[in-house]
Amino acid sequence: MEYWYKEHFNEDYLLIYKHRNDARAQSELKSLMSFIPYHKDQKILDLCCGAGRHSRWFWENGLKVTGVDLSSTLLNEAEKFQQSRDIHYIQSDMRNIDFDEEFDLVANLFTSFGYFQKDIENEQVLKNVYKALKKDGYFLFDYLNPAFIKQNLIPFSKEVIEETSIFQYRTIENDTVVKKIRIEDHSSRRTYEERVKLYSSEQLKWMLEKNGLKVIHTLGHYDGTPYDENHSSRLIYICQK
């Protein structure tokens, strides 16, 4: 399922990740953004913004926000919560964005990288980030920790939300985390698949710096603790152009 990301980010996705809400975003970003010397009225690109939970936090903390996502469903959800917020949302594939030194910051959060089978396509995203950033701009890059995933993969989980059952099956195939999801309710059964290519911390740092994004902090959790290959659940880079 090479193009899984075109089908997956719909209403069911919002249900599966219902726990990823605005309160969670506030908790995550409050610590992470303390590592970046940002100030009011700077421009930020929220790349793969989804339903806008991080975009709203950025706006509420004084930044001028542009959110980009491929999913019309998630962007429509983001628009529902717009209210008086002046956030500019754009529908686009992250490989195809073409900003030229427009942003002081770019954020790519919640493992929104590694979606493509070919390394050259994943690397194109980093090239686009570099091009979008102003000189000395910052890139906040939140990815899973592949070493931790390999050691702690949970093969199966089940969750019931109201009258809907969510079954998730996880495997690692050819250096790719594959999550197969089955959703059952009183009316139907739906299946989805997520695929994220695993890049080691060394590979990812090399890719970032090859594309002009110098790593200045490597964190292992949303609370800002340093990265530990064996124990950190996340691999979070703060980079500067």
TrEMBL record:
It comes from the Bacteria. Its EC number is 2.1.1.222, 2.1.1.64. One of its GO terms (biological process) is methylation. This is Class I SAM-dependent methyltransferase. Transmembrane segments: none annotated. It is an enzyme of class 2 (transferase). PANTHER family: TRANS-ACONITATE 2-METHYLTRANSFERASE, TRANS-ACONITATE 2-METHYLTRANSFERASE-RELATED. GO terms for molecular function: 2-polyprenyl-6-hydroxyphenol methylase activity; 3-demethylubiquinol 3-O-methyltransferase activity.
